[in-house]
Amino acid sequence: MQQKETDLALITAVLAGQTAEYAVLVKRHQRFVFTLAMRFAKNREDAEEIAQDCFIKAYRALGTFKQTSKFTTWLYTITYTTAMTSLRKKRLDTTSINDDEYVLQIANSGTNFDANNVVEKKSTYAYLNQAINMLLPDDAAIITLFYKGEQSLEEIATALNMEANTIKVKLHRARQRLKDKLHYLLKDEVKELI
Question: Are 99 and 146 contained in the same domain?
Fold first, then answer.
């Protein structure tokens, strides 16, 4: 709650002409905006570009923030729409994630770790992020917003311009797909333990 008040105070200061205060908002939320952008872009360069575009758009539209929802919900809505626009511009291949050949391509491209990162590869966090990256962008966004962003179903619905019940169903299905991806990634790990 304190951060929400602080965000609102910073927004008020920026709108009053203290534009340097916007850097505090950017610093506070840049990591999560970048994480969410990565869920869509799948590569660092595109995610950085999306995140930068989000903060520029948010700055330009700051006067339209109505304070009826949290600032983060408003910002993540901008992130989502910016990412979707970016993906449409790039016209990415929309092959189904259930296509076994496509899953193997993603798994192989996402597991290039050097010897120094072997410990990280075996960590639960690394497997979880790898599995999330294998999900479709919408599923990855919902999982990221719900668990990492700690957004409620209603806040996610607002950010993604959907009904809360739709988000609830999509979250349930995304969890199942995430479970399947983790099972796929960890099957070799389980074989090593046996």
Answer: yes
Measured CA to CA, the distance from residue 14 to residue 22 in angstroms comes to: 6
d(CA 93, CA 16): 44
Instruction: Note whether 47 and 116 are same-domain residues.
Output: no
The number of folded domains in the chain is 2
For 68-81, how does the pLDDT look when each residue is reduced to its tens digit (9 = 90+)? 888 888 998 899 88
Question: Which of 15-19, 87-91, 159-163 is the most confident on average?
Answer: 15-19
Which tokens sit at 25? 């908002």
Structure tokens at 190: 């389980």
Q: Are residues 189 and 100 in the same domain?
A: yes
For residues 4, 11, 19 and 46, what is the CA-based torsion angle, rounded to 10 degrees? 70
Q: Smallest Cα–Cα separation from 42: which of 141, 147, 120?
A: 141
- pTM of this prediction exceeds 0.85: no
Q: Identify the three-state secondary structure at position 194.
A: coil
Asked if 142 and 174 count as a contact pair (C-beta separation under 8 A), the reply is yes
